[in-house]
Amino acid sequence: xxxxxxxxxxxxxxxxxxxLLRLLAGHPFVxxxxxxxxxxxxxxxxxxxxxxxxxxxxxxxxxxxxxxxKKASFAFSCLPHQSAMKTIPxxxxxxxxxxxxxxxxxxxxxTTYATWYADSDGPSRHHASHLLAESVYGLPELHRQKIKKSxxxxxxxxxxxxxxxxxxxxxxxxxxxxxxxxxxxxxxxxGAGRKASLDLSxxxxxESMHPYNPTTHxxxxxxxxxxxxxxxxxxHVTFVPHLIPIDRGILATCYLTPLRKYSxxxxxxxxxxxxxxxxxxxxxxxxxxxxxxxxxxxxxCEIGITINPRTEKIIVMSAIDNLTKGASGQAIxxxxxxxxxxxxxxxx
Length: 348
Fold this sequence. Notes:
Number of helices: 12
Oligomer: single chain
Order of helices and strands: EHEHHEHEHEHEHEHEHEEHEHEEH
Shape: globular
Mean pLDDT: 95
Strand order of the largest sheet: 8-9-7-10-13-12-11
Number of domains: 2
CATH class of the largest domain: Alpha Beta
Radius of gyration: 20 Å
CATH superfamily of the largest domain: Dihydrodipicolinate Reductase, domain 2
Distance between the termini: 24 Å
Number of strands: 13
């Protein structure tokens, strides 16, 4: 029997940390030997997260990078941006591979990071910029081979995952205008994290929906970076996110202007062919639109595509679970690739 890989989860009691534990409970090749939480240090996971029965006796610890690196050869970091970049280099130096679920290692340059992750005092300084050239943007459908060889993966954001998977086939062909791409996306409240906030309280979000950060959402930078690399030219998108009163799930609708004649059958054929070998992308038959309910708790991205014959606009729709394919499930998919395992291992 192959010895299991000892892994750690940093920030285990947030939504993404809990989702990692839920999924890893059924993973045959790993052993979660350490889980950290500054808020609940000293308590067991059973006390804090009673639904995670498989790890009920695992005691939560404060983060100590030296101890973690001695115990675990692999770590998931669920720390917030700016915090992750201060811890992860210490682990990398000691040989621990990392998938980072924050934004700290998603960008190719510190300048781009600072543009989108400015704080009230101005642009945020990247404290580990020397690792940006070596980290890999963890969207397997784009960077599978690089992920396999990497020791540090920046796990994509939830909105970019849904939007990029919707856009990649057409942007790569460059059969659409790259100057007027519009992305409208709706997310459940868990996308904002577990920290208490008045704006995310039940009475504020129940029976209501609203757009937010319509011109400045931080995930825009990721979307533009990856599309620009794909097309080998600078691309800007109009991205407007909305908060809707569900706990988990993202539905994205993207609008594109074709540069040649497309029929529904043409688009269906293009997407079905492009994603035919992708285990976690499901292209629906013509006329079947994606639903968040269809992908809840899974690592699947469900895609529907059509063209409006009156306006000649292509409409691509995608649905993911923001906590699974949009975060923890994709992180495990990346871990599998980094270890040479079948990438579907342990994933629904």
